[in-house]
């Protein structure tokens, strides 16, 4: 995760507007003219604060990543049972999904940023890798014999719940995926 940068009030406004527009319309569909106009700033101010649209995209993704990780870490801090801790990312999913009607902002951005050297692409890979690694670590702490295999399965289930919620309209996707994750976890603990 990239370090949090200190934003001026104008930069914060630009980032808020850009984040909303990037999520709702797509990164390539939104130009800096639109972001500047809807932020109530000039393009020069936008470039002064962020340097480029690519840097603004990175700031957008970094802010989403930071909020997601903070939500997970806060809930993990409250959970003491090692088995229950493995399911925390599923427990917070309903809260996270409610405003996420267009699916995962990272998956959406990944589809729009095919260039391997785009500064946002590594951040996207890092976010998804972090979740898989978190499942791996928590599974190992819970005593799962093959935590890597379970981590991949849980990550796939977690990501699938986001797709089912946003694309298929399965409003119970988070609850159903948590139930399936619990079953997978308990089976892995037995084996």
From TrEMBL:
InterPro entries for the chain: Homeodomain-like_sf, HTH_TetR, Tet_transcr_reg_TetR-rel_C_sf
Key words of the record: DNA-binding, Transcription, Transcription regulation
Residue ranges for the DNA-binding region feature of this UniProt entry: 31-50
Protein name, entry field: TetR/AcrR family transcriptional regulator
Every HTH tetR-type domain range: 8-68
Database matches in Pfam families: TetR_N
Listed PANTHER family: HTH-TYPE TRANSCRIPTIONAL REGULATOR YJDC, TRANSCRIPTIONAL REGULATORY PROTEIN
